[in-house]
Design brief:
Elements (H helix, E strand, L loop, with lengths): L5 H44 L10 H8 L4 E4 L10 H5 L3 H4 L9 E7 L5 E10 L4 E8 L6 E8 L13 H4 L8 E2 L2 E2 L3 E3 L10 E3 L5 H23 L1
Parallel strand pairs: 8-9
Antiparallel strand pairs: 1-2, 2-3, 3-4, 4-5, 6-7
Helix pairs in contact: 1-2
Length: about 230
C-alpha cells in the first residue's frame, strides 16, 4: 500500500482512533469502582461532618456504620416513608431529583444516633449557585426544628466569595437556628447586610457572594418545603 496515499492515511487514522478509544474505555471501566468508592466516602464524610463527627477516608465507612448504619430511608412529599433499602436511599441522585417538581421528588433522610443517645435527622439539600450546583447536609435535632449543624459545598463558586459557603465560619452560623415558627415553615434566611446575633431564622450572607447566597437561601427554602410534611409528623 502506498504510504503517501490518502487510503493509507485514512486507514492508519481509523485504526489509531479505534485503539485509543478501546484503551480509554478499558481504563474508564477499570477505574469506575474506585471512583464510585471515592464519591461514596466523600459523601459519608460530609454527612457525618454535619453532626460534628470528623472522619477520613480510612475510617469513614466504620464511623458511618457506627452512627448511621441502616438508618437511611426515603420519604415522599406527603412525609411517608418509602419501602426501599438503605443503600437505595443512600444512592439517590439529588442532581436528578432537584429537576423534578417538589411533589414528585424522593427525599433521603439519614438518622444519626449519637453516643449520648440523641438522634439527629440529616437532610440533603441541593440547588444552584453562581457558576454551578451547590449542595449540603442539614442536621436537625429530635424536635425536627432546631439545626444542630450544617455543611455546604459547591462545584465552581468563586474562591474568596461564593466559595465561602464551604467554610466552617459560614456553616457555624446555622447552629441553633430554627426553621419553624408557631408551626409554620419559615426556613433560614441568608441575609445580605447581616442579621442580629439573636435572630432565630437568619444568618449573614457572604460578602461579595450575593448570587451564591441567594442560591443557598432558595435551596434551603425549596428543600425544607419538600421535607415539611415529614418534619411535622
Amino acid at each position: 500500500m502506498d504510504r503517501q496515499g490518502n487510503k493509507y492515511t485514512f486507514l492508519y487514522a481509523s485504526i489509531m482512533v479505534i485503539v485509543v478509544a478501546t484503551v480509554l474505555a478499558f481504563v474508564a471501566e477499570a477505574l469506575n469502582p474506585i471512583q464510585k468508592k471515592n464519591e461514596e466516602e466523600a459523601k459519608m464524610i460530609d454527612i457525618l461532618k454535619s453532626v460534628g463527627i470528623e472522619s477520613t477516608t480510612s475510617n469513614v465507612s466504620d464511623k458511618f456504620k457506627e452512627y448511621i448504619g441502616e438508618n437511611v430511608y426515603i420519604v415522599n412529599f406527603e412525609g411517608n416513608r418509602q419501602d426501599v433499602s438503605a443503600q437505595a436511599a443512600f444512592n439517590i441522585d439529588l442532581g436528578k431529583e432537584v429537576r423534578k417538581p417538589l411533589s414528585e421528588r424522593q427525599y433521603p433522610v439519614f438518622e444519626c444516633h449519637l453516643e449520648n443517645g440523641e438522634v439527629k435527622y440529616i437532610l440533603p439539600v441541593r440547588g444552584k449557585g453562581l457558576w454551578g450546583p451547590i449542595w449540603g447536609y442539614v442536621a436537625l435535632n429530635e424536635d425536627k426544628n432546631t439545626i444542630f449543624g450544617a455543611t455546604f459545598d459547591h462545584k465552581g463558586e468563586t474562591p474568596g466569595l461564593g466559595a465561602e459557603i464551604s467554610t466552617d465560619a459560614f456553616q457555624q452560623q446555622f447552629k441553633g437556628k430554627t426553621i419553624f415558627e408557631d408551626g409554620e415553615l419559615v426556613s433560614v434566611n441568608v441575609v445580605k447586610g447581616g442579621v442580629p446575633d439573636d435572630a432565630s431564622h437568619g444568618v449573614d450572607a457572604i460578602s461579595g457572594g450575593t448570587i451564591t447566597s441567594q442560591g443557598l437561601d432558595a435551596m434551603l427554602k425549596d428543600y425544607f418545603n419538600g421535607y415539611e410534611a415529614f418534619l411535622k409528623k
